[in-house]
Amino acid sequence: MATNHNNEPRDASYSKEQFEYYTDKEGGWLNKGSKSIFAGKYQKDLFIFAMAIGKYRDKKSLVKSPKLANVRVDAMTERQKWALLSIGISESQNLLCLKDESSMYANAEEYANEGLKILISHIEKYGINYPKSLEADLKDILEEKT
Question: Which top-rank group of organisms is this from (predicted)?
Answer without folding.
Answer: Archaea
